[in-house]
Every structure is written in C-alpha cells, then in structure tokens.
Amino acid sequence: MNIQFNNRDPVYVQVVRYFKNQIAKGFLEPGQAIPSRRELANQLKINPNTAQRAYKEMEEEGLIKTEKNQPSRVTSDENVLQDLRDELIVQAVSEFVSSVKSINVSLDEALNLVKQKYEKGDSDD
Amino acid sequence: MNIQFNNRDPVYVQVVRYFKNQIAKGFLEPGQAIPSRRELANQLKINPNTAQRAYKEMEEEGLIKTEKNQPSRVTSDENVLQDLRDELIVQAVSEFVSSVKSINVSLDEALNLVKQKYEKGDSDD
DNA sequence: ATCGGTGTATTAAGCGATTAATACATATTT
DNA sequence: AAATATGTATTAATCGCTTAATACACCGAT
To answer: Which of B88, B99, B100 is opposite residue A103, by nearest beta carbon?
Structure first.
C-alpha cells in the first residue's frame, strides 16, 4: 500500500483511482478484504472521512461491498470487474482519439506514436 | 466562433484549448488577427477578464503576440506553432499510454481499440 | 456490560481558484 | 480635444469542493 499523492487532484479521487487500478490489474481479487476506513486513513496519513469518501464512491459504483461489521470486500461480481476494466479502457481510448482527431493527427501517425511510447515506456506500474 | 462550454473546466482553460486546437489545425494562421478581449467576451458571453486571462496564458506561451493598440495576432514563429502541435500530441499519447499500461492493456489491444475508435469515430471537429 | 473496533451521517471549516468589478494608460478617430 | 476602443493591472467577491470534526448505531470480544 503506497500511493504517491499529487496535490493536483483531490485525495479521495486518487485513492479511488489507486484501488481501481489495483482491481483492474487483478492485484485485488474478487471477494478480497480491504482495510477499514480508519486503518486506511492511518496508513496513508489521511483523514478517516476522506477514506470514507473514497470507499463510498467505490461502493456506489459497485466495486466494493460492505456488510455490517465486516471488512469491505472487493465485489465478487465478475461482470462489474470486467466492466470496470472496460470502462477504464474505453475512457482512455475516447479521450485519446478525441484529442488527436481535434488536431488532425492521422490514424497511422497516432498508432505509431502509441507504439513507440508504449515500447520505450518508463514503466510506472 | 462557437465554443461548447462544459461546466467542468474553467472557462478560460476551455477558451485556451479552443484556440490551441484552431491553431494546431491551421484554421488560425500565423500572423492572423484574433478578436479583442472585449469583443471575444461579447461573442462568447463571458466576462472580459476571463477573455483576458485566456489571452494572457497564450501570450505567455508565445502563441499570440500583442502590440499596443493592435489586435493580438497568432505568432508568426513557425517553431512555436510546430511545437504546439507536438506538445498536444505528446501529451495525449503520454496520458493514454500511461493509462492503459496501468491496467495492463497490451500494446496490440490498445492499438486495435484506437484504430476502431478512430475509424468509427463520431467526428467532433 | 464494557470496551474497542467498525460503518455511516451531518455539519462546519477551510481553502483555492475562478470570475467579476473597477480603474488606468494609451492610441486612433472623429 | 473628446470619444471610443484597446490592453493591462489590482483588488474583491463568489463559489464549489475537499477535508475535517463530531456524533451515532452496531457488533464482537474481553
């Protein structure tokens, strides 16, 4: 558990993003327990309410499930998990294509650039 | 001149983005005059200071040049114009590759998705 | 039953950034 | 020279959102 916070985006957004990526990668598996609000807050040195805010977002999106007096768990609904990954991808693709199109970058050019960047890429995982 | 404002990003940012795209596409050519602050404000129904803010950003980036009592003009510096387009592209590519990598999307998959989206794409130009 | 842990709700505080109001100096035009 | 239009600077108001403070209800273990 180690999040590199920037001071650009809200903390709770960054926390959500972190968990989404972890889930999408499969590092967090279906049904797996995640830390309590207060514990997460301690680990990350953030306010418990901020942790709660993040968990609430994920709860509303169906990513995690919470039962009384049990640790919240990653949903076991495979559809949701599949959808999550898909949504992240679709969003990334949409933004990218929209951007390059708006400045008249050809498809070939775009593909080449992606390929180069991907292969060369400073891995940030 | 027609900008579709969202209420997500600051107005001046959206104005800058609009002009950048126009320039990157070549719709605004080197040396071409652009509206005065107040005129732009009238057309877009925004506060003159917001227009000024946008122009100031562009001025600082070297995209436009302003001489006393003359309309601001798109820079004639071809280098700047080339750099602009390059920067927009690099930024888009970086964000995209970073996103897909963070959720373990393979290069091939990414390329395919871009291709599909690009070709199918609802043109937003 | 008491204590410590949990999730949750409500409310307030704080902060940052955007937008707006206003004024000033200059230049061109009538 | 008066009027109008320009760019610019300074300051204030506004607004939204994030974060924090606090309290409540629940449960399990001691």
So the answer is: B88
